[in-house]
Amino acid sequence: MTTLKDWPVIAGQIERRPVMSSHVEFAEQYGNLRAGRPVVLTGVPIPPTCAERLTDEGLRRSLGDTMLPVMVAAGGQFATGKGPWDPSKFRILEMTFSEYLDRLHGRRPDPILAQGERCYIYQSPPERLGPLLEDLPMSPLIPPDACVVNRYAWIGEGTITVAHYDTEENFLLQLRGKKRVLLFSPADHDYLYFNRNGTVHDRHTRVDFTKVDEQQFPDFRKARAYETVLEPGDMLYIPVCWLHHIETVTFGVSVNTWWMTPELLKIHQAFDTLCGEIDAGVRREVQHMCLQVMRDRIMNPINP
């Protein structure tokens, strides 16, 4: 066994550049299906009122007594999606935000969490967080004709989001703290050992990045990871179908936005039309076929 930090797959750092103001410039250089490539856009402005609410005092003042669902995961490794969840690995608890912070930082005896479990405010719609993010605008780099799918907040420390890919474009904006991110191109999907097609988590890799099993996953060595550490004001563009593994390095708050260009939306709509009301298992298989077509159109590693 070896950890990913010791594994010879880190091919380089993700490009970093100051954020641009034009969605046209962004689309031409990064955000399109044929030439989509990740980039960290630095210097994204965070409204001062929002920044004030992200301090420890501001968080407790804004959210202290708010009841929130909190995800608990064994080993601090969190899968994505809507479930169903394996009850031996994941569970949802309701607690106030102040209780969550105290539990996160070990300020109270905790009979709820077992040894090795971590808790995470995970994929929370911003409207559930009261005033915390109410004046954080949508990124102007999302094209005006795009379809915004979802926007979620993530608040935690010491967690890992298990490596997976999404079927939408993704902006991940870091508001507080640091996150380490590893990205893998769709060109390397054959080396990433996804769960079986048609299962709930078939866009997740079976490789445990904290202790890579070289015997079970020998071709993982062929995959190339691109790395970055996000700090406040950094926004990472994760193109559709790029696998991403995310670690919260320090206590942090981030917001991600999933969106689709008209071209990508047409692919999703074609899938919905094709599948109709067919059996759920068959639907997942057909979806996988559609995603394969999508990946075939965007298999462009950063440095071919």
Automatic annotation (TrEMBL):
Gene3D superfamilies: Cupin (2.60.120.650)
Pfam families documented for this protein: Cupin_8
Top-rank lineage group of the source organism: Bacteria
Family matches, as SMART domains: JmjC (SM00558)
Annotated signal peptide: none
Organism: Sorangium cellulosum (Polyangium cellulosum)
PANTHER family, alphabetized: HYPOXIA-INDUCIBLE FACTOR 1 ALPHA INHIBITOR-RELATED (PTHR12461), HYPOXIA-INDUCIBLE FACTOR 1-ALPHA INHIBITOR (PTHR12461:SF105)
Ranges where the JmjC domain occurs: 113-276
This protein's name: JmjC domain protein
Upper lineage: Bacteria, Pseudomonadati, Myxococcota, Polyangia, Polyangiales
SUPFAM superfamilies hit by this protein: Clavaminate synthase-like (SSF51197)
